Amino acid sequence: xxxxxxxxxxxxGCGACPRPAAGPELPxxxxxxxxxxxxxxxxxxxxxxxxxxxxxxxxxxVGLVVNQTSLVGRTHLVDTLTRRGVHLTAIFAxxxxxxxxxxxxxxxxxxxxxxxxxxxxxxYGSTKKPTPEMLADVDVLVxxxxxxxxxxxxxxxxxxxxMEAAAEQGKRxx
Length: 174
Description:
Elements: H1 2-16, E1 32-33, E2 42-43, H2 50-57, E3 62-66, E4 71-72, E5 75-76, H3 77-83, E6 88-93, E7 111-112, E8 119-122, H4 132-135, E9 140-144, H5 155-169, E10 172-173
């Protein structure tokens, strides 16, 4: 009997608790679009949602963690952002390199992208986690890599290491 009374008091008490205030409204990000002329809607990838994230990059030194899946239409995100005047200071290359030209398991080395001239820093070579020196000229990191969700793919661990390094250095990740 006492148990029922206590349970009733707890249930009523929980219902009387004030609800948390609603948080700030998030930007309306479209998940799918209707192609011109009808047809099936297609999913928009993160890189294609420029209006949602370009304001976050304005006036910042931007580092990209990208690979061959980081496309806006048929154009690589590095090339798209370079053309739009985003100040790219670093490209962080995961397994296969950022343009996807390296073999499985091949060590990725630092270098410079021939197309954009942006320095390329390996996060699949002697280090998997960006070092403070690698992040020194970066204000914000953009991570845009598609992943199939299998544990033997390395991209999710790359995201983990990037987020950990960014948190340690006070950098934002988009």
